[in-house]
Amino acid sequence: MDRRSFLRSSMYFTVVSAGASLAACGASDNSDDTAQAPAGSFAFPLGVASGDPKEASCVFWTRCLSSHGLETVPVRLEVSSASTFATLAASVDLSATRQYDYTVRAKVTGLAPGTRYYYRFCAGQDKSVAGQTKTAPGAASAPAKMTFAWMTCQDWSVNHWAAMDLIAAEELDFLVHLGDYIYETVGATFQSGAAEAAHGRITLPDGTARSGAETGVYATSLEDYRTLYRTYRGDARLQELHRKFPMIAIWDDHEFSDDCWQDHQTYNNANTRQTERRRSATQAWAEYMPIDFGDVSFDLGKPGHENIRIYRDFRFGTLMHLVMTDQRLYRDDHVVGEAELATLTGHDRLQGDDKIGARYFVPLPVLQQFELIDSQVLGHAPSILGRAQTEWWKDTLKGATASWKVWGNEVTLNRMQIDLRALAPAPYDKQYVVNADAWDGYPSHRADLMTFLKANSIKNVVAITGDLHAFQCGTIRDNAHPAVGTPVAVDFVAAGISSDSFYRYLRDGAGATPLAPLVATPATFDAVIRGNNPDFAYADHDAQGFAVATVTAASFVVMFNKVKPLNADGSKPVSPLLKRTRITLASGSTSPVVEDNV
Q1: Is the pLDDT of residue 7 over 80?
Q2: Strand, helix or coil at 508?
Q3: 482 pLDDT band (50/70/90 cuts)?
Q4: Which of 114, 342, 391, 521 could form a disulfide with 347, with the two C-beta atoms 3.0–4.6 Å apart?
Q5: Can you tell me whether residue 240 is helix, strand or coil?
Q6: How far apart are CA 158 and CA 565, in angstroms?
Q7: What average pLDDT score do residues 153-176 get?
């Protein structure tokens, strides 16, 4: 962020060097009225958080409320290398204001690399819970090992969040969130299943009702999105993850709107542009995520939906380089336009919902035909990353010298197609792209990126992925066809924390059609997928859970942690872990080795 941007957003994001403005908690420059306020005058109801760890900096976050209804709440951040806070590395005066929903965030620079720090916030005589964080190793250092977890798809309204207890028990250097931190809908059809008793129904103050056959309402205003973040962050388990580990976060679609692209919703064929709604979703995300806006940018004064840039990268010594991308804000429309498909099939061009055929289970010849047409109209092949981010991705990967290049990738990179020409009667006897909202729906753009890796001999590229509500691992080639082309990367997909599994969506969608036998059981569907896509090393499409990666110079080892679903009586399982699957990728290899039920 340049100096002008920093000054323009100084109330939003503060940067301070360690050692600056040192004072004891409660002895700040705050007003006499605040300092003399009795204990209990201030509260930190959503706990604390840290994020975006670098070798010399980290970002710290909280939300502070005044029982006296102050418009501006003076808050002080303390950072120390001692859990007792006997000595301070930094002490920073901040202001929690109504403008940003009483959230504050500060970046402290000048910290020591590879060091654990403790932090807390103070207001008057009140103190927040103490959090802990850890800076990244020094740029020239060679860590023997780094361990991190990644998570995704934590729908408040479905299932349970006991997986978070398991993550909190891990010994991690940091935590990655790949999106769907919130779900923008309440009471939608796909959220009709049971949820744990602790997760009551959310009421949106300004929500808009879904139209057509869909139920529920979706977040529309800034206050709606803030309500969702406040509710989700009110869960003690999520608070504990933020308290214990620094988080590196990116968004996917539900932080704004399901299957969104740029500032367009896809609830119906109209793909309506909703710029103000997109801006509200962006602001709420920026307020509630501990993200380093010293590296990227956010400007409320800039018009349009591209008032934020969140793609960025992180270095962990010579061992690992983590590249985080934004796969929603710059992407072109889905290759097969819903309105165009509706016209061809005689459906309602605006209020109809043709996601089946446009974004899911798209006949391969239709996708190929539309991609050629779209490329001529756009002047380039339809893209997920957009031109500027694509060049940044290529430059960053080409310049990476770490042993492992890890891509924080929101949507599935693996090829996932099904050929039903010999298995199903008409009109189902076609070859399908199962999920065209993911990279399979933008095949030329994926091929461009993967060909770049091959042409530049970039090795040890691993994608960590979310979105699909399934566990998957497979080799990625520089060609869209199975078993053709050069393997250049490996994609590890983690299941969602709580969201219904991909298999259950497909099973419910198949209903009593001739496709029902293909999804008769989870094992049946997994066999169909692997049979049609031989580059998969592992697939479990009926799952919830998370993944943990242990990285050394010699190997990238991923542990898939699958959790049990909600009990039949609606309670969460006392012992949530169902099974673990270990997948090992040796340095220099693109052939992962699977050990199931370890």
Answers
A1: no
A2: helix
A3: low
A4: 342
A5: helix
A6: 10
A7: 98
* 3-class secondary structure, 399: helix
How far apart are the C-alpha atoms of 47 and 240, rounded to whole Å?
8
Q: Percent of the chain, pLDDT > 70? A: 95
Amino acid letter for position 266: T
Residues 523-529: what's their mean pLDDT? 95
Q: How many CB atoms lie within 10 A of CB 203?
A: 12
- Per-residue pLDDT for 418 more than 50? yes
Kindly report whether the global pTM for this prediction surpasses the value 0.85. yes
Q: Which tokens sit at 176?
A: 């990655």
What average pLDDT does range 18-26 have in this prediction?
58
In contact, 441 and 368? CB cutoff 8 Å: no
Query: Which H helix or E strand runs over 397?
Result: helix 387-399
DSSP label of 32: H
What tokens were used for 350? 């605006």
pLDDT in tens, 177-226: 999 999 999 999 889 889 999 999 999 999 999 987 788 999 999 999 99
Coil/strand/helix, residue 577: strand
pLDDT value at position 290? 96
Nearest C-alpha neighbor of 81 from the set 112, 36, 43, 60: 112
Asked whether the CA dihedral 230, 231, 232, 237 is positive or negative, the reply is positive
**Long-range contact set of residues 421-425: C-beta below 8 Å, sequence gap at least 24:** 423/518, 424/514, 424/515, 424/518, 425/514
- pLDDT category, 95, cuts 50, 70, 90? very high
Per-residue pLDDT for 423 more than 90? no
CB 113 within 8 A of CB 289: no
Measured CA distances, 208 to 119, 204, 263 (Å): 39, 9, 17
Expressed in angstroms, the distance from the first to the final Cα of the chain is 46
Residue (of 593, 384, 591) closest to 489 by Cα position:
591
Most distant CA atoms of the chain, gap in Å = 79
* Structure-block tokens of residue 95: 């202001």
Residues with Cβ within 8 Å of residue 470, at least 6 apart in sequence:
493, 495, 501, 502, 503, 539, 540, 541, 542, 543
Query: Which of 69-73, 238-242, 313-317, 570-574 bottoms out in mean pLDDT, i.e. has the lowest?
Result: 69-73
The number of residues in the chain equals: 598
Distance CA 435, CA 362 (A): 8
Whole-angstrom distance, CA of residue 97 vs CA of residue 78: 19
Nearest by Cα to 535 from 581, 489, 468, 595: 489
Q: Which amino acid is it at 487?
A: P
> 45-49, 268-272, 512-516, 541-545: which has the minimum mean pLDDT?
512-516
Q: Are 49 and 290 in contact (CB under 8 A)?
A: yes
Summary count for the chain: helices (H), strands (E): 13, 33
Is there a contact between 463 and 475 (Cβ–Cβ < 8 Å)?
Answer: no
Hey, what are 141's tokens? 């250092």
* Whole-number Å distance between alpha carbons of 131 and 128: 9
**β strands within 253-311, DSSP E:** 297-298, 308-309
Residues 239-250 as b/e (b if ≥16 CB within 10 A, e otherwise) read bbbbbbbbbbbb
Q: Which of 315, 319, 313 is nearest to 143 (CA)?
A: 319
